[in-house]
Known about the structure:
Layout: H1 4-22, H2 24-58, H3 69-96, H4 102-108, H5 111-145, H6 149-181, H7 184-187, H8 190-206, H9 209-221, H10 230-234, H11 244-273, H12 282-300, H13 306-321, H14 337-346, H15 351-369, H16 381-385, H17 391-420, H18 425-452, E1 459-462, E2 465-467, H19 472-494, H20 497-509, H21 520-553
Antiparallel strand pairs: 1-2
Helix pairs in contact: 1-2, 1-5, 2-5, 3-6, 3-9, 5-6, 5-11, 6-11, 8-14, 12-13, 13-17, 15-17, 15-18, 17-18, 17-21, 18-19, 18-21, 19-21, 20-21
Amino acid sequence: MGFVPLTIATTEYRRTVRTVVGDRTKLLLSVGIILVALGPMMAVGLLLLPVAGEALAAGPIEPIAGFTVADIVTGGIATAWVGLVAFATIRVVSTVADLDEPALVLTATPIRTLVVGLVGSELLAFGTWLLPISVLLSGAFAYGTGTVWPVLVAPATVAVLFLSAFPVGFALGVGIRHLITVYEPIARYRTPILVLIGAAYFGSIALGWFDQVTGVLFDLLDGTPLGWPGHLLLAGLPNVTFSMPHAVAGVVGSGALAALAIVVGTRLAAIHWRSDPFREDEDERVVADHSGESRLASLLEPGLSQPVRTVAVTALRRTKRAPVRLLYVAYPLFMAAFFVQEIARAGTIPSYIAVLTCLYVVWGAGAFVSLNPLGDLGPALPAVLTSTVSGRQVVAGRLVASALVAVPVAVVVSLAVGLVSPLSLERVALLVPATVVGALAAPALAVGIGSLFPRFGSVTISSNREAVMPSKSAFVAYTLALAIPIGAFGIIYTDAADTVAAVATALVAMAPVVELSVPNAAVLALAWLALFAGLAGPALSAGYAVRTFDEYVS
Length: 554
């Protein structure tokens, strides 16, 4: 194989780095995720590890809950290995096994060489930030122990874990990807299967089950060969007994497991990459689509002109065929994990969560198909602009498409969360129509903002997958245009002008020079002004969208 695997690994590594660094949004998002995920752990580790090192250097530590230091280290190493395998598997399923230009790559490079290179690129990518973290944390521990050995053995232990975890993850990932993309009984239903798996994962985190599963894994894996590489780490700790045979066996076993995983991964990759992906029968899909569209068009025929019906049906059809375009609508759902634990603990949906859920439905109604009315047309934009359809008809079609989906969802969701929550029936009777009205008004607000900040080019959603999505400016402006009037209504409804004025005065007082007291009347006046602007916003926004479309034509 020569140095070809190394060339593949370094090339893929450079592409990964260039992808992240070249996209400012993706770079900031990656840094934010790392800070949120690892920041608290790093802070706690840097504070507590020197203390733990001093305690260990002072003498042997008594067992904690029946576990010795050696048990904790070996069990932790085994659990960490399983976590690395799971993470590597997800990476392979979603990205690594999805080759760019597979016909060219597979005819130019032996599959075994390609597999080794792809695994090597993952080792480089994650070693770039995990190895420095291990050096930093082990350095903090070494500072407490007064010896340099932890700094030497910790990165070596991480490297041993990487050596076997990523090849095993590759083999598992290729097998899973083959099932969900090629094997028809599973590939046909891969979308609902993946949704259920994602819901189960985030639900387990929100409900605290993830910690319980980790504890069970620790108990099961403690003392197994998967934890033997931990003896390599124990070798650098003072006053701790370790097993040299287990340390050597852990290193050798990791190498043997990596070699076996490469062989298995190569066979699975050959089967997967040489197979045709599952595709639904095009004729059946077209017939089903036309049948559904005909029924929908017949449903819309009373009271709606042909151009409006065509725009509405086309918008829904494009969304159905490319649901990945709605990925941004699901972004706020990631915050739902913070509320699930409270719901589980209370046994019911708190009132404020019921209201927030309805507000999310209203927000999603506008973001559904109305936030990029011009860009969503894609290559058909010139044909639409030069047709006889008017701006009023295009905007009306978009609003009808949104209403067809958003109104039923608004009724069901608002009624369900209202009845389950402690809200009184009178409040539920207000919540349901308010949510429905919001679901009708939000698309009108969104269509004008989307016309003001259109996006015509596609953006990368995942590896080799692109979609035309609303611009970040439209996304932010639309969210603020909804949030500000809603917040103003909350101030007026709860009579919170005094509190808001006090908070604003306190914030202004933090400035070194400015001395200003914010009067309650000013806050109340601004709230009423924002509320009136919010009420007028949908009509004004829809009118702007109509004029923008007509100006494109003229």
